Amino acid sequence: MPTMATPPLLKRLNEETVLDTIRAGAPISRAEIARRAGISKPTVSLALRALLEAGLVREAPGRPSGPTYGAIYFEPVAEASLVLGVDLGARFLRGALSDLTGTLRARQDVELAGADADTALDAIAALRDTLVRAAGLSPELVDEVVVGIPGVVEPQTGVARLATNIPRLDGRRYGAELEERLGVRVTVENDVNLAALGERRQGVARGVDDFMFLSVGTGLGAGLVLRGELQRGRHGAAGELDYVAVGLGEDIDPCAAALAALAEATMPAPPYDARSVFAAARAGDRPAREVVREEARRIALHIAPIAAVADVELVVLGGGIGTNS
């Protein structure tokens, strides 16, 4: 059923349009906002009043070159609100604090060796406070937190599934628990899905509507973007490629443990970890190059069927192994 164009809705849409126009063209005058947004000057004035009162825009101290004819210019207040992004992994907790322009104000990685989902709650709260202090801003400015987890998040319930890398995370509504702890809105999403959105926003997939982000590391997962939209699937489990090989006789696993086993069987001496194997291959070591060649074949076996079904334009490789392949 279509949404009714009620006065409050129109007011909000006008304010969003004016704010977006200011962000794109600051410093910018009232008349120029009206011209670029295609709305009347009185409507722009009403929207500006609301945005000024909300602290989302302010009068710009600077002016563009050339005659201004006494016009007042406006710019967005980048620090009016902050977003905390968190990557919760099996070994590390990574956090980044961003303002409304997308500029990073602070970033930090914290080692979480042996931590479970309960201790991670405390660690995320502590990381939020540390990043805000490092940015020299108030904790009250953090308006939303986005958390990436190595597991599936059910769209309807918010319950984490297949989240076996973090003890005591599977089966929990982790976003709701974090909201209670932090006192702000929290979105929990599969970490590879978020990586795909990041590639579309600021990475090599900018401007690409149909692509796959394939992460190869401790585990294997894909984020699929079609027609510009992230595809989560019915239960949020789209892209869980770790389960593709179930029932198959051929070993097609390209992940870290499988690569180490392959290296041990192929190379005459350790180390067999991924970083060392790729370094040896770049240096021309023949057994290491054979391992890398087999690794590439296994990765391609996962790319080919998705490319055949979804007809993607681009595949972006990520993860500790994928970025080396």
What key attributes describe this structure?
325 residues; alpha+beta; 5-stranded mixed β-sheet; 10 helices; elongated
Q: Which regions contain 5 or more consecutive residues with pLDDT less than 50? A: none
Major beta-sheet overview? 5 strands, mixed
Helix content: 40-55%
Order of helices and strands: HEHHEEEEEHEEEHEHEEEHHHEH
Mean pLDDT: 91
Strand order, biggest sheet? Answer: 6-5-4-7-10
Radius of gyration: 24 Å
> Which structural class should the secondary elements be placed in?
alpha+beta
**Number of helical stretches of at least 4 residues:** 10
Strands, count: 14
Strand content is 15-25%
Overall outline: elongated
Please give the alpha-carbon distance between the first and last residues: 48 Å
Describe the structure.
The strands form four sheets. Strands 6-5-4-7-10 form a five-stranded mixed β-sheet. Helix 1 packs across helix 3 and helix 8 packs across helix 9. The chain has ten helices and 14 strands. By secondary structure, it is of the alpha+beta class.
Quick structural summary:
By secondary structure, this protein is an alpha+beta fold. The protein has helices spanning 7-25, 30-37, 41-54, 117-135, 174-182, 191-202, 256-266, 274-282, 286-310, 319-322; strands spanning 28-29, 57-59, 73-76, 82-88, 92-98, 104-111, 142-149, 152-153, 160-161, 185-190, 211-216, 220-226, 229-231, 314-318.
Write the layout of secondary structure elements.
Elements: H1 7-25, E1 28-29, H2 30-37, H3 41-54, E2 57-59, E3 73-76, E4 82-88, E5 92-98, E6 104-111, H4 117-135, E7 142-149, E8 152-153, E9 160-161, H5 174-182, E10 185-190, H6 191-202, E11 211-216, E12 220-226, E13 229-231, H7 256-266, H8 274-282, H9 286-310, E14 314-318, H10 319-322
Parallel strand pairs: 4-7, 7-10, 11-14
Antiparallel strand pairs: 1-3, 2-3, 4-5, 5-6, 8-9, 11-12, 12-13
Helix pairs in contact: 1-2, 1-3, 2-3, 4-5, 7-9, 8-9
